[in-house]
Specification:
With about 700 residues, the chain is an alpha/beta fold. A hairpin with a 2-residue loop joins strand 1 (about 5-10) and strand 2. Strands 3-9-5-7-4-8-6 form a seven-stranded mixed beta sheet, sandwiched between helices. A two-stranded antiparallel sheet has the order 1-2. A two-stranded antiparallel ribbon has the order 10-11. It has 27 helices and eleven strands. Helix content is about 55%, strand content about 10%. The two termini are about 50 Å apart.
């Protein structure tokens, strides 16, 4: 059977592909991206190629001020003085090829407005990157470059002219202050040859069958360009670290069979990582970020980028590297420049990991430890695989997931604790990782204990003397209290896992012992719900039954509550609600927590919707509401469900939260504290 002939556009050329595996790989990488070209362009390429860029009227125009212009000039100046830096990557240019369009003004030194429309054939509409591209054009004009790329505007306003004139003055002053006359040519060569744009060409321009663009087609192009521009500025088109990283990976031509196989392997690994990260259980184990502002694979790239500093610290102690620098007579401070660059980068900055990786590749070249982008990719895969191996372990899943849940949820970058654990534990066995994780949990509880005791030095161990009775709503910081109550939901599962592991490893356990079915804590559900710290017995109960019933709109609910009260009265051998009203306060006082209603033995986490539904109702009705929400499929935290359903009570009374109930609950919370204070993993070792 003859091979099916398939043609696909890759890097602007239509290519026949006959092997079905090649078809799938190339389509997977290129087709789904709506991007025809992922490549790089130096400033020199743009100048010598006579590139024409078009800026449509819907864009806001040039808006850079002095600080931004000087920051770019200073970056270029650093590259100019560093002969070891092969290139400096600028922010991406996102362009869309246009058959024809109309402009009123061409960027020039005079920048004179002209309201007449002029036709412009075969240009690139600039969707993103206007500020840097315009600034570099002004710099080139100040350095008297005759042949450069051109920028055309559909519409210019006086405010555009003022910003460009001010940038022109800023650049003129900076050049005269920082460059001698004999340095200007070399500075110019740095700009032309070392400044590189990542080039994104969106390949959805409308092609006219007649060879000309009609007014209707022109309007359609304008609408599509504006739509793309809006999406880019709203973050809907993912010009993320992941896309830039992929562009670097696929930039080299694959001509040999070995190179083609490597490309297939990278494609497979990329998809494997993306697929695993789409698993919400895995994602919310390593991240508490619920927004979709970034692609999830960016997270893995950021973990890697932020772990690089640790690798450089290790390099400094490597004998081979010391020998290399001794022979090459290079400075022993070979990591200082990278470290300064690394430390000055804002971790919340867009394209953070892309910038770090770019700089790291350059750094490796200076120390005789050449790394290609494909070598870097192999290390990124190792990051993912290590995190996934931790996810598969039940104990690590719960304890690491807890540490991630305790972090601030305002960042959109990689979790601090995941970066910390990866850099410290990537070469350790699972057993040793468990020890490290427990140590970090203990440190968090130690911090809570120190704050409860109102300060103290870092060397003082307050946790060893802390009991559940010391923790309450008044004296404990809200975030600490929520952390404590969250772990009260996770600890019973960890305890169950550990008990099973100990039995399985015991000498007298039969080989046929089946693994227990452990229901993992659903971190995704935890992040999707707003939680309140709930008083089990209300702080200020509605002590009159008639008043309590007024808070419910439904007559059916009122009747159901009355029925529950009457059943209670029969057990108490009381004859009426009136009799109960007389003694209700006495009953309440009898069951009030010894340490007050704000003691932790009277607190759980409850979703805010349920909490605000019943306000200060007494325990019996709270329990009723929670059971009803559980029947509806609403998520109730396991410890909260256990408290209100009274799993630990032998002969429970379901309308009161009694002293015995409180004692049982506090005993379990103290058991959790003892576990945190004392429990470690006994196993040791390093992964082979």
């Amino acid at each position: 059977m003859a091979d099916e002939k398939v043609y696909i556009t890759v890097n602007g050329c239509e290519t026949e592909i006959t092997d079905i595996e090649d078809i799938n790989v190339i389509r997977n990488i290129f087709d789904r991206q709506r991007i025809d070209i992922l490549s790089t362009r130096t400033v020199k390429d743009l100048c010598t190629g006579n590139f024409q860029f078009y800026i449509a009227s819907y864009q806001r125009g040039y808006r850079w001020e002095k600080d931004e212009v000087e920051m770019l000039l200073n970056d270029i100046f650093s590259v100019y003085h560093d002969s070891q830096t092969p290139q400096y990557c600028l922010q991406p240019l996102v362009v869309r090829k246009r058959n024809a369009c109309k402009y009123s003004t061409k960027l020039s030194k005079g920048f004179e407005n002209n309201n007449d429309a002029h036709p412009l054939d075969e240009c690139y509409e600039l969707l993103d990157g206007q500020q840097r591209l315009t600034t570099i054009w002004i710099i080139l004009s100040q350095l008297n470059v005759n042949k450069t790329y051109q920028i055309f505007y559909e519409l210019t306003r006086n405010v555009d002219k003022k910003f460009i004139e001010f940038a022109n003055e800023t650049i003129y002053d900076w050049i005269n202050k920082n460059l001698k006359e004999e340095e200007k040519d070399n500075f110019l060569q740095t700009i032309l040859e070392k400044l590189t744009f990542i080039w994104f060409e969106v390949s959805d321009a409308i092609q006219s069958k007649q060879g000309k663009t009609t007014n209707e087609e022109q309007n359609a192009e304008n609408q599509k360009s504006e739509s793309l521009f809006r999406k880019i500025n709203k973050g809907k088109i993912e010009l993320t670290n992941a896309e830039l990283f992929k562009a670097m990976l696929l930039n080299d031509e694959e001509t040999t069979e070995e190179q083609r196989q490597k490309l297939e392997q990278i494609s497979f690994e990329w998809d494997k990582i993306e697929q695993s990260l789409r698993n919400d259980d895995f994602w919310f184990f390593i991240s508490n970020e619920t927004s979709d502002e970034r692609t999830r694979i960016d997270f893995i790239l950021e973990v890697y980028a932020r772990s690089i500093k640790k690798q450089i610290d290790n390099d400094k102690h490597d004998v081979k590297f010391k020998e290399y620098f001794s022979k090459s007579k290079k400075t022993s401070n070979y990591g200082s420049e990278f470290e300064e660059y690394y430390n000055n980068l804002d971790k919340n900055k867009d394209r953070y990991s892309f910038l770090v990786v770019n700089k790291y590749i350059d750094y490796c070249k200076t120390i005789g430890k050449d790394k290609t982008i494909k070598d870097i990719w192999e290390e990124v895969v190792e990051v993912h695989d290590k995190l996934y191996s931790w996810y598969l372990d039940d104990e690590l899943y719960h304890n690491i997931g807890f540490l991630v849940a305790c972090e601030s949820r305002t960042r959109a970058v990689a979790s601090e604790i995941i970066v910390e654990l990866y850099t410290e534990c990537k070469n350790l066995t699972i057993a040793k990782v468990k020890e490290k994780v427990l140590e970090k949990i203990k440190n968090r509880f130690e911090g809570m204990a120190r704050r409860i005791r109102a300060g103290g030095s870092d060397n003082t161990e307050f946790l060893k003397d802390l009991n559940a009775s010391d923790i309450d709503y008044d004296t404990t910081k809200t975030s600490d209290l929520q952390m404590f109550l969250l772990y009260s939901n996770i600890y019973p599962i960890v305890r169950q896992i550990r008990n099973y592991e100990n039995k399985r490893n015991g000498e007298n356990i039969k080989d046929s012992l089946k693994e227990i079915d452990i229901a993992r804590f659903p971190f995704k559900m935890y992040y999707q719900i707003k939680w309140d710290i709930e008083h089990i017995n209300p702080k200020e109960p509605i002590v009159q039954i008639d008043n309590a019933l007024q808070m419910f709109d439904s007559e059916a609910e009122k009747e159901e509550y009355k029925k529950a009260i009457n059943e209670y009265l029969q057990k108490k051998k009381q004859c009426s609600i009136d009799d109960l009203n007389k003694n209700l306060q006495e009953e309440w006082d009898k069951n009030k927590p010894e340490n007050g209603s704000n003691a932790v033995r009277n607190l759980v986490l409850l979703d805010s919707t349920t909490n605000r539904q019943y306000h200060n109702a007494i325990f019996g009705y709270k329990r009723h509401c929670i059971i009803e929400r559980d029947k509806e499929g609403k998520y109730i935290l396991p410890q909260t469900k256990k408290v209100f359903l009274k799993y630990d009570s032998i002969n429970p009374t379901f309308i009161e939260w009694t002293k015995d109930d409180q004692d049982n609950y506090e005993r379990e919370l103290n058991n959790m504290l003892d576990f945190v204070k004392n429990c470690t993993s006994k196993a040791e070792g390093i992964d082979e």
